[in-house]
Amino acid sequence: MLPLLAACLILLSFVQATSGRSSVRAAWYAGWHATVGYPLSAISWDKYNTMYYSFAATTSDLSSLSLNASDASLLPQFVSDAHAHGVEAHIAIGGWGGSIYFSSSVATAENRTMFAKTIIDFVNKYDLDGVNFDWEYPNHQGIGCNTISSDDTANFLSLLQVLRQDSKGDSITISAAVSISPFVDSNGNPSTDVSGFAKVLDYVAIMDYDIWGSWSSTVGPNAPLNDTFATSSDQQGSAVSAVNAWSKAGMPVDQIVLGVAAYGHSFSVNPSDAFVSGTKTLATYPAFDKSKQPLGDAWDNTGSMDACDVYEEPGGTFRFWGLIDGGFLTKKGTTAPGIYYRYDLCSQTPYVYNETSEVMVSYDNAESFTAKGTYIYDRGLRGYAMWEAGGDYNNILIDAINSVVY
Ligand SMILES: *[C@@H]1O[C@H](CO)[C@@H](O)[C@H](O)[C@H]1NC(C)=O
Ligand SMILES: *[C@@H]1O[C@H](CO)[C@@H](O)[C@H](O)[C@H]1NC(C)=O
Ligand SMILES: *[C@@H]1O[C@H](CO)[C@@H](O)[C@H](O)[C@H]1NC(C)=O
Ligand SMILES: *[C@@H]1O[C@H](CO)[C@@H](O)[C@H](O)[C@H]1NC(C)=O
């Protein structure tokens, strides 16, 4: 009896220790996808412990955040559904299209006080458990028309400090979705010391995706795990290098969550470039035809005006389910017959290629999610955050990463 009890206690403390180490299992819920196939009822709540409602946009009015692009009417139900499943409900503020007024909102002490009050009021109004700042990006232009200042990073830190001085602000989970380099300092370089942020943020979620895409010079991995043994020109960033950079700048690894992608980017690649000459083996980093951006899945932007009122070309994005819809993958998430496949061992991400349509996609699958989960666990990171919950198919990706991160 006693040895069994001891064994149970050891097992119990092991489970507690590991769950303490990798406690964030999160995803973003995109409100604008509720009416196109991913309603709240489709969320597999039991797979997660945190969900970020995306996005509340910054506005020119310091007293309001806008849910215009993400269906405000859903947020109360989102919060009650999350709570019914024991999941923390957070609001993600900003995003690619919603970061226009971040800089001006934090520019002065007066603005920070008002903006902090707006955020706290919003948290109280919707009974939220946390705020995920998704400022893309402090002192680094994102969509093209963001307000921007060389003091953005310092002012952002001041805003977070104001929030933490509030008793409500001190009690919620505050995180930030960040790029693969530490916040840009006033000289435009990655900050060498982000330890101040570590004091006021529960964690950062590194957006290790969109590393390669239509803007790149060749096809490359959307969400590389590693790039240290790629040639130097192919080292555009990865989870490994990003975590090292943030950690070196003073963000403890157990306050780093890895952002993972339930989608991929497509490229138009001629068969003569796609294959290693004389074989049917897919080539690494092939050239692609920029003038022929393939259309992505049913959620792809087919060309529209962005938040800056500038025309945006089709993105060519395939969600994981979109690759199944598009004939690249089977319903089990494996390569469909007639499709060429390559798993890149450096980036630990897969590629698929349809020779007839000449479309190549760099994406993530169960194998790459397992590799990322293993890295999260081994490196002692805080967990993962997936863009976006609605990208998965039958929980294939989330089950793969949950099998190693819990
Ligand atoms: C949100 O939509 C309302 C109604 O269409 C409009 O009056 C308001 O200006 C919009 N707010 C933002 C920030 O776009
Ligand atoms: C403070 O916020 C207001 C309202 O958004 C804005 O008009 C003003 O420019 C901001 N101050 C600074 C210095 O950016
Ligand atoms: C990244 O690649 C280097 C080799 O360049 C290797 O030593 C390291 O273990 C790799 N890390 C991961 C997490 O794959
Ligand atoms: C490859 O693309 C062609 C042309 O679009 C399409 O007819 C075919 O079904 C695709 N192959 C697979 C396996 O989906």
Elements, N to C (H/E): HEEEHEHHEHHEHEHEEHEEEHEEEHEH
Q: Supply the CATH superfamily name of the domain at 24-261 and 364-403.
A: Glycosidases
Instruction: Count all strands and give the number.
Output: 16
- Kindly state the percentage of residues in helix: 25-40%
GO cellular component, one term: extracellular region
Organism: Rhizopogon vinicolor AM-OR11-026
Keywords: Carbohydrate metabolism, Chitin degradation, Glycosidase, Hydrolase, Polysaccharide degradation, Signal
Catalytic activity: Random endo-hydrolysis of N-acetyl-beta-D-glucosaminide (1->4)-beta-linkages in chitin and chitodextrins
Task: Provide structural commentary.
The chain has 406 residues and is α/β, with parallel strands linked by helices. It has a domain at 24-261 and 364-403: Glycosidases (TIM Barrel). It has helices at 2-21, 75-84, 102-105, 109-126, 152-165, 167-171, 195-200, 239-248, 271-274, 320-325, 366-379, 396-402; strands at residues 24-30, 50-58, 65-66, 88-94, 130-134, 173-178, 203-207, 256-261, 263-268, 304-305, 311-312, 317-319, 340-344, 349-354, 359-362, 383-387. A hairpin with a 4-residue loop joins strand 13 (340-344) and strand 14 (349-354). Helix 4 packs across helix 5 (152-165) and helix 11 runs parallel beside helix 12. The longest helix has 20 residues, at 2-21. The model is unreliable at 1-22 (pLDDT under 50). One 2-acetamido-2-deoxy-beta-D-glucopyranose is lined by residues 327, 336, 338-339, 354, 356-357.
